[in-house]
Amino acid sequence: MPGRLETGVATFVGALLDLVAPAACVACGAVPDGAEFCDRGPRVGGLRPWDEASLCRACARLIGPPVSARLERPGGGQLPVSAAGATGPVVARIIHAWKYHGLRGLAWPLAARIPCPAGAGAPGAGPVLVPVPLHGRRRRRRGFNQAHMLACLIGRSSGLPTDPEVLRRRRSTDQQARLDDGPARRRNVDGAFEATAAPPDPPALLLVDDVVTSGATILAVAAAAVAGGWPVAGVLAVATSLPSLRPVDTRGAGF
Description:
This protein has 8 helices and 8 strands, in the order ααββααβααβαββαββ. The strands form 2 sheets. It has a 6-stranded mixed β-sheet, with helices on both faces. A two-stranded antiparallel sheet has the order 4-5. 41% of the residues are buried. Strand 1 and strand 2 (78-86) form a beta hairpin. The mean pLDDT is 83. The protein is of the alpha/beta class.
């Protein structure tokens, strides 16, 4: 109960502050009267009527260019990762404000820059967008699952279906960002996810998350999906710090 009360108070205070003093750009501090700001996008779960895209267009362009990388799967093979940009100070500041300071409208400019696969949304073709699940306790504290929000926005733009029920988080884990090395991150998420049983001839999954750093979380999620009988085609993210980044030439989601 205290956690829910705290979340409710924070939500009310955030809405009141937005009404009294419209949010400046989280990256450079510019105000709407002095700079062109990113537009709002479609309304999806987790976004509230008063949310704004608190990011000017000049700073939004600093997120890119889009890049791709590949994760080595433990059992062999590679998992392609497509991201709006490489991890850096600007994108880290934006994501931190989005996830931890209640600026939910930042999901719009972030999702709009995530590259979608060619031919996405074509009738009878294309994979299913599946967000990395967030533990219920953390989702209630934050008020939303950032990966689910991204998946819904990408789906609205690309025409790809979204299914948040394919995967679930079996147990709470420490925040990966607080762990220093790859082995610790892998131990933290080992066995943390499970998938529903896939139907006959299942569609491929595109996993969606905000940041791919070491890849430990994504590999654990992909392993759970494969164990459930689901093929995994790749990963979409806002940012990645994986090595061997390559520019990609695919359309952004674009609202």
